Amino acid sequence: MSINPEMQARKPVHRRTPVRLTAAAISLAVIFGGGVLSATAASAADAPPSDIVLGIGAEDSQRTLTWYSGADTAQVAQVALASNVVNGAFPGSATSVAATGGQTTSGEFNRVSTLTGLAENTAYVYRVGSEGNWSPTYSFRTQDFEGDFDFLFFGDPQIGSSGNVPGDAAGWTDTVNVATATYPDAEMLFSAGDQVESASNEDQYAAFLQPDQLRQIPFVATNGNHDVGSKAYEQHFATPNTDRAAGPGNGTSSGGDYWFIHKGVLFMDINSNSRDFTSHIAWMQNVVAEHGDEATWKVLAFHHSIYSAGPHATDTDVADRRTNLPTVISDLGVDLVLQGHDHSYARSYLMHNGEKADAAEQAGADSVVAGPGGVLYVTANSSSGSKYYELQQSGFPWLSVSNQEHVRNYTAVEVTGGDITVKTLRSQANGDALPVNSVVDQVTLSRADDPNTDSEQLQVTVPTTAPGEFVWSIDGTNGLVDLGTAVQSGDHYAAIGSINPIRVTDTRTAGPEWAISAQVGDFTSGDTSFSGKYLGWKPAVIEAGGDAVAGAEVASGFEGGDGLSVASTLGNAAAGHAKGSAKLGAGLDLNIPVDVTDGTYQATLTLTALS
After folding, report:
1. Which of 255, 445, 447 shows the shortest CA–CA distance to 348?
2. N or C, which end of the chain has less CB nearby within 10 Å?
3. What confidence score (pLDDT) does residue 24 get?
4. Among 256, 231, 237, CA closest to 51
5. CB of 514 within 8 A of CB of 571?
6. Which backbone phi and psi does 399 adopt, to 5 degrees?
7. Which 3 state secondary structure label does DSSP give 530?
8. pLDDT computed for residue 454 by the predictor
9. Lowest mean pLDDT among 49-53, 327-331, 453-457, 543-547
């Protein structure tokens, strides 16, 4: 295979060629579940802990817990396997995690604990408080740490906005009930902001926190304009990897910008109450630079919709955000932006640098294919029914779909490796013709094929090399690298082998730098699999030439680390290298846990050339 030599220096050009690997290994059995268990009544005089929220963690194996206590006493979160619950009694084998916190703006005391080291596909129970004064017992379950997933997105609950707090809370609770019953495996409850009408009103917060799902499914809080003016937002919700200096507000404002990765999706959530765009942009650029390569998709959330159809669409402050943010959002490769604020539903065309990306895209298309820099923006309607805004009749150039029926909505986001489906549904019927869970709008977002990438078996036919080309190919005829039968070795099974060598030839005059890297997927056999992190390698230059050097050795992740499940360099040459040809190889080292089910598993090792 050859690469067009007329590229600019350092422009990435890719050829991906999968290696088929075979080894004997295992899938692990797990048990999971959910629900609420009865708890022993608190025996202490103090009121039991309140305002409990299960939050998202910095990674899949973490969760946060926040709560309020009436007294400034030492508090802990206790967590245990749900399988250890006997006759409803909280397990004595529970792990205690100390809480931090301090006095709240309402005179209570907030507490935060971070649960770490959680196992995938496992049910847990937990309680918070102190000896003799525990909360009720709640449960949650983790799911796979890799693969497809759903999450639920909710527009501004804004409890208290109607003037009827119990009515707003009832609508909010009903929407959460409908959404989680329809999507019982949803892995997050994601807010567009404006949890309450008045930032410091604890009665409104208590009403917002009524649904028990907020204690069973991780909640992701976005900072809305009704959440500022008090520290209550950040006292109720713990957010991971938070930079409170990014987009700073005043001394009484809450929040900052934060990010997390869930199943290979990078989520960024910025505090759009601040229009310190320099700070927000620098923060997003830094997060993507450090973690973008870990992500299959990038999702950004902020409260103030810049592509809506409601009255705020023409506000001066919204126009300011619309001027300053879209280009950097496109440049950073963000795929989907989730927004609120305008209490009506809107879906944009694919937008690139603030303009419609494809003039041919039809309004209301049920599938869209984004080229580089194309971004889908979705604005959620009210999830509680506390407030609705009418649609403007202006012909907004960004608007693909808009809807306002004065009924409550929620949005289900279904994420796979190849696409994201955004489905907005009614949680409240609009007459007999539009019942609960009828669809308001649905669109599937996918990406255009990268013309510089392809995927083939290792065996290739290499054409005659023309002068001044960069060429790489598989130097072998066997399309399957067979690691044979793994052998038990103490606490693991071991198998070794080597890839078919890679021949790299670079005759370009300037000698621009190049690198060959590789990343392996999961080993699978039917419906079972194990992580590719257990594969390691030791690269080598088999035949020297063109100043090529081997990449660093990568150990199997059996003892820790990611192994070859993250991209690793096979070989490279620096800028200004000599013309010539080199042959690169690598020994493979696979170490698999011993609790295995026998079988023949295959994985794909994807090789990528960058030059």
Report:
1. 445
2. N
3. 29
4. 237
5. no
6. -90, 115
7. strand
8. 46
9. 453-457
Amino acid at 205: Y
Q: Any residues with CB less than 8 A from the CB of 128 and at least 6 apart, and which?
A: 49, 52, 65, 67, 75, 76, 77, 78, 99, 111, 113, 134, 135
Confidence of residue 467 (pLDDT cuts 50, 70, 90): low
Query: Global pTM?
Result: 0.68
User: Is the distance from CB of 608 to CB of 14 less than 8 angstroms?
Assistant: yes
Q: How far, CA to CA in Å, does 105 sit from each of 99, 199, 202, 254?
A: 18, 10, 10, 11
SS3 603: strand
In one-letter notation, the amino acid at residue 261 is: I
Taken in order 244, 247, 251, 256, the sign of the CA dihedral is negative
List Cα–Cα distances, 539 to 181, 220, 482, 559, in angstroms: 50, 42, 18, 20
Q: Any idea what the Cα angle at residue 257 is, between residues 413 and 128, rounded to 5°?
A: 75
Structure tokens at 347: 């879906």
Share of the chain above pLDDT 90, in %: 73
List all residues 6 or more positions away from 41 whose beta carbon is below 8 Å from its beta carbon.
Answer: none
In order of 79, 190, 558, 595, the CA distances from 84 in angstroms are 11, 30, 28, 22
Handedness of CA 155, 156, 162, 167 (dihedral sign): positive
Question: Among 75, 77, 80, which Cα is nearest to 46's?
Answer: 75
Mean of all residue pLDDT scores within the chain: 87
Structure tokens at 198: 């008045």
Band (27; pLDDT cuts 50, 70, 90): very low
Would you state the pLDDT for residue 26? 25
Residue entry with tokens 């080309």: 469
Instruction: Quote the CA–CA distance of 430 and 435 in Å, as a whole number.
Output: 6
In the predicted model, is pLDDT for residue 30 greater than 80? no
Under 8 Å between Cβ of 337 and 301: yes
Helix (H) or strand (E) holding 264: none
CB 152 within 8 A of CB 109: no
Count CB neighbours of 8 within 10 A.
6
Amino acid at 306: I
Do you know the residue count of the chain?
Answer: 611
DSSP run (H or E) holding 65: strand 63-69
Containing H/E element for 606? Answer: strand 600-610
Count of C-beta atoms within a 10 Å radius of residue 424: 24
Residue with tokens 């005089």: 45
Structure token digits, residue 128: 């918070």
Integer Cα distance of 302 and 306 in angstroms: 10
